[in-house]
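A further point concerns the way the authors explain their paired sequence and structure data. Showing the layout once, in full, would remove most of the difficulty. For illustration, here is how one protein appears when written out as sequence plus structure tokens:
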Amino acid sequence: MMTTTPLTDLEIAQKIELKPITEIAKKLALDAEEIEMYGKYKAKLPLNRINKEKIKNNNLILVSAISPTPAGEGKTTVSIGLSEALNQLGKKTTVVLREPSLGPVFGIKGGATGGGFSQVLPMEDINLHFTGDFSAIEKAHNLLAALVDNNIQSKINNLGLDPRTISLKRVMDVNDRALRNIVIGLGGTGSGIPRESGFDITAASEIMAIMCLAENLDDLKGRLGNIFIGYTYGKKPIFARDLNAEGAMATLLKDALKPNLVQTIEGNPAIIHLGPFANIAQGTNSVIATRMGMSLSDYTVTEAGFGFDLGAEKFLDIKCQSAGLAPKVVVMTTTIRALKYHGGADLKTLTIPNVEALINGLPNLEKHLENAKLYNITPVIAINRFYSDSDEEIQVIFDLAQKLNIKVALSDGWAKGGAGALDLAAKVIEAIEENSSDFKPLYKWEQDVVTKIETIAKKIYGANRVEFSPKAKKNLKTILDLGLEELPVCIAKTQKSLSDNPALLGRPTGFTLTVREIEIAAGAGFLIPITGDMMRMPGLPVHPASENITVDLEGNISGLV
């Protein structure tokens, strides 16, 4: 009997006949003259179409997940499939997502445009240069870095910056571990002042975080000016505004501030804008993009990176607090394979039915569901279905949902598109219409920094206590001295575990969370407690995904995942 090799996501995407982006714009009641075309299938949306009154009546749906595993969970695929299904059910829906970083695209994780028949298109463009948003952020960030070193070098226009106090690095959108820690300014007196520095990945730039929280161009300039640079030798704090940097930076970013309109496989609107990582930043698309989706639709589906403990917590405690947003429901994405991995099954055996391992892994799902309820938001479980899932395994999760009185549905969007997520869409609509959610944040911004960190660590992660290193304690004093103690916290933590130890799977308890330092992102408007061995510049694997990516003489791309 002959078998056929399943099509890859790229091959499926390349078989779809795209609609001109002007047709997608019409679905949002936008005229062709209102959008800025980037070719035939991409466009920038006008900021003046954000309607705060319309936003109040929109149904915002947050898609989150259990703790990530190497087997993958598929939040983006579920988000897209759900939006397709809601449109099929007659609900005017837009999916709002993050832009992919080239780091994962060329590294190990791949792109971020969904999968199978639940994708956003044009997949190749979105995963690569797209509309240049990441490039603009990279240029603006590196302009600021150049201005800092130029000021240190100058004998005439010198603020007296102490190079030892500067934490700002340069950025690039490629994984390159060799650039994490470097010495710059070598080459003699005409080439700058030698000092230690390095590179972060662009998604980790504070400017990425700023862009995602800025409400408009004026707000953007203010936030850019608030970027903390370091201290003078006389202990005076220096910000980007002291270098008169914000005007030029905002000029580079003015177009990148506008969200991007593309389409789903089924020809429905998708807004994609910016992409901070959730393990080192806030992990959600921009406030502007979410508000745009909510202004132009009746239902808006969005996702937050990694598990609920990272992306969703930051979405709710930082983004929603900052922008005045309130999700009506949380879709908790899980897979049979991932739960078996959390239950102790070996990665190579996850396609083999194993009810015992699945049951052992359920506490991870239970904890994330409990966390959603801490915010007084109704969760709905989405089982992202794979071909290897057995009926007996699926029933285990349905039994858990019945025990917890939580709605649950299979999501088969990868194989069937919107048709595979109709039951999930129906359950989400039911949850919204029951009106049982009344969002409340986990903590108040005006609480002291230690209390905010401990609240997240103990309530969301399940830690027993929090330990602060001597450096972190010194950072706490600096934060107090600068008057920034009322900023929210954006904890940098491994995505692989609820704890700060990536080896602790499932639902670890009784552990101590160690904060080794706290970075100040005054421009973004939050503090970054760093735990474990978190790094802002990932490395490439032994065999990076880039080895398989190529383009033929006709311009056709292959190997992109």
About this structure: The mean pLDDT is 95.
